Amino acid sequence: MICAKRLGEDALPELRLDLFPELDPEALVDALRRRCLVTCRRVSEGGRWPDEDEAGRMAHLVRALKGKPAWLDLEWDLPIPPEIQAARTHVRLLRSIHVAPGVFDLEARLSSLPDGEAFKWVGWAGRLGDNGRLRRPLAWARDRGTRLSAFLMGPKGLPSRAMQAAWGGAFTYAAPDDGPPAAPGQLPLSTLRAWRAAKLHAGYGLCGVIGDPVLHSRGPAFHNPLLQYALKDLVYLPLLCADADEAVEALEALGILGLSITAPLKLSLPEALGLKGPLNTLWRRKAGDPWLGANTDAEAFEQSLSNLEPGPVLLLGGGGVARTSRAVLDETGRAVLQASRRLPSTAEAVSALAPVGIVQATSLGMSATDPVPFPELLEAAKSSARWAVEWIYKEDTAFVLWAREAGLGLVEGLTLFDAQAGVQSRRFIEGCGGVN
Questions:
Q1: pLDDT surpasses 80 at 434
Q2: Other CB atoms within 10 A of residue 378 CB
Q3: What integer is the mean pLDDT of 400-410?
Q4: Where do the structural domains in the chain lie, given as residue ranges?
Q5: One of 120, 232, 266, 286 is an active-site residue; which one?
Q6: CA distances (Å), 249 to each of 36, 127, 128, 273, in order?
Q7: 310 preceded by cis ω (within 30°)?
């Protein structure tokens, strides 16, 4: 209640009666001074009210009407009970439907709307491109003055929540900043405000970071302020996807204009688009244009490397980031010993190389419990090493802690991230569509 009372005019609190079945619904509405949407969700639709007690649920909703809430949520397919119909002089109806995974019947439902002042359709995102299936019906509703919100639950449904206003939706749902989300994929209110989700219009283009994991990426917090400062009609979101074919489908379905590519797609996605990888940046002026690509990781690494003591390098890892690192090291003429799970090396080989630098380009460090990579090789390199580079930009990875303890000069992942992301933002601002 405290959180709800502190909301600004841009947000309306939803009063979920199924979460507080023991409390007086009229008193709850009164505590919010009528400014709320009253909902009592059944178990089959993600709530807690037993499906078999429909009479009790309706009675609970009717009791809430005595407090005269601004809005009341009534399921799409239900007839309007007389008690609710009688209250419509002061209560507006939101007609809602939660469909099963794999069901996309929104367009059919829009052809025969029930009685109500606003409508909500909620599905599930099995693939990232599923979000694109909502764009046409949302635009249709906007053009006809129908107040509709249509979005997809689950982590892959995030674009539909954030792009709701841009695609034509009248409202979206957010989680409280000081509490858990009420549904899978629901974003905190402060996040939607930071992305200016409520102010997006039909001219906005979509950029984002694609890969898995990406939901906790620093990318949106880094890029969105720069895009906003440049007055670009672009928003940058996390796009969860681990499969190149699925990603290619989503690029067109969502009309994506700019991408930061992370693991595991730095090699496979560019190749699926006919580009030579590894790449971590894609952009185009408008949907349908050819993609342009760059590897800003390489640019950031080369910049950092120019300030580090010359000499041989021990490179750990065999994926896209390791390939990028190896290419830059080779171009600068440094001797390199590369070790990975597929191409193991030995402590004797490391000692013979006597590396001055160590580049950590494995995925170890993404999880807080990840160990230091190749500890026997690091031990062999300790006596000659002078500096270390960590590509993972999470704080205090096991490798970072090892490098500090060894007294090495350190280029942390956050430094590399900021350098490469800054170059990415310039590419998006200069090369992607959006109104200046």
A1: no
A2: 22
A3: 97
A4: 2-197, 298-419
A5: 266
A6: 39, 9, 8, 11
A7: no
* pLDDT at residue 123 in the model: 97
Tokens of 142: 């906007």
b/e code 253-291 from CB counts within 10 Å (16+ = b): bbbbbbbbbbbbbbbbbbebbeeebbbbbbbbeeeeeeb
pTM equals 0.88
Compute CA distances 426 → 86, 226, 261, 294, 429, whole Å.
57, 9, 16, 12, 5
- What CATH number belongs to 298-419? 3.40.50.720
* Residue 266 bears catalytic tag: yes
For residue 99, the one-letter residue type is V
Q: What stretches of 104-205 show up as alpha helix (H) in DSSP? A: 106-110, 135-143, 158-162, 164-167, 189-194
pLDDT computed for residue 4 by the predictor? 59
Rounded to the nearest angstrom, the gap between the alpha carbon of residue 207 and the centroid of all alpha carbons in its chain is: 11
Q: What is the CATH code for 2-197?
A: 3.20.20.70
Comparing 16-20, 266-270, 276-280, 344-348, which segment has the lowest mean pLDDT? 276-280
